[in-house]
Specification:
This protein is mainly alpha-helical. The protein has six helices and no strands. Helix 4 runs antiparallel to helix 5.
Length: about 150
């Protein structure tokens, strides 16, 4: 019975026309509707996706730069280790030759020192060979042509 009364009242009431589009009444109705809430949710999700994508791109760029810097640093460390190893090996050869120089013929000593000087890995090593070579170099031009 109550349902029939409500049905009769709904049928007898004139329909309420919707407000004109873009009018203040329309905006009032639209902003309080579930359609507006859904639209704002989609907009918020799109903004969040955009922000996350920008952050991911930035983090990838930073990671790529860090990998390059790490690779360069590792290469520098490897190069330094090779130079250290080469210099240590050369130094051992120099020390061994230095201990043998007194028992060698001066001409042979100059040849060996010259060969050691060509393999010197550093300007300091070249200077060491030059200083050692002076001891065995002929004093004047006459001794050099005495062969």
């Amino acid at each position: 019975m109550l349902i029939d009364l409500l049905r009769d009242a709904a049928d007898s009431a004139p329909p309420i026309p919707p407000p004109p589009v873009w009018s203040p009444e329309w905006w009032s109705t639209f902003t309080t509707s579930s359609a507006f809430a859904g639209l704002m949710a989609v907009l918020a999700a799109a903004l969040a996706l955009w922000g996350v994508n920008r952050r991911i791109t930035a983090e990838r760029r930073i990671a790529r730069k860090q990998r390059r810097a790490s690779a360069r640093a590792a290469q520098l460390v490897r190069n330094a280790a090779v130079e250290d190893r080469d210099f240590a090996s050369w130094w051992e050869q120099y020390r061994h030759l230095e201990s043998q120089l007194d028992s060698m013929d001066p001409r042979d000593a100059l040849v060996v020192l010259d060969a050691l000087g060509t393999t010197a890995p550093h300007p300091v090593a070249v200077a060491l060979v030059a200083v050692a070579s002076r001891q065995y170099a002929p004093d004047d031009c006459e001794e050099a042509t005495d062969d």
